[in-house]
Amino acid sequence: MHSKPLPLHSLKVTVWRGFTAAFIVGPFFFEEIGPSGPVTCTVNRTRYESLLRTQIIPALKQRGCVDSAIFLQDGAPPHIATPVKELLNLHFGNDRIISHYFTTAFQP
């Protein structure tokens, strides 16, 4: 009798991807390295802020559009944490963010 092989990756994926009219940013996967390799992890404010600071904002700066991009996100708790809101305001200004708890709210 043959045993069923174990999957190479978790059956769950937590990923962030952004897009503009001209290009796609990402995908970026939320993973941690476990004893048997990458494991999907929960998105919390620390991980989300780190992704914005180290990957997303630099990618937009590299493309020369961080000063004109409009940032859209829903109101998931990691998206509206105070450090995340401060970081987004720093780079996009309150008038170029569409999200809950900002001037322009994300519509359900």
UniProtKB/TrEMBL annotation:
Name the UniProt record assigns to this protein: Tc1-like transposase DDE domain-containing protein
InterPro entries from the UniProt entry: RNaseH_sf (IPR036397)
Source species of the chain: Araneus ventricosus (Orbweaver spider)
Organism lineage: Eukaryota, Metazoa, Ecdysozoa, Arthropoda, Chelicerata
GO MF annotations in UniProt: nucleic acid binding
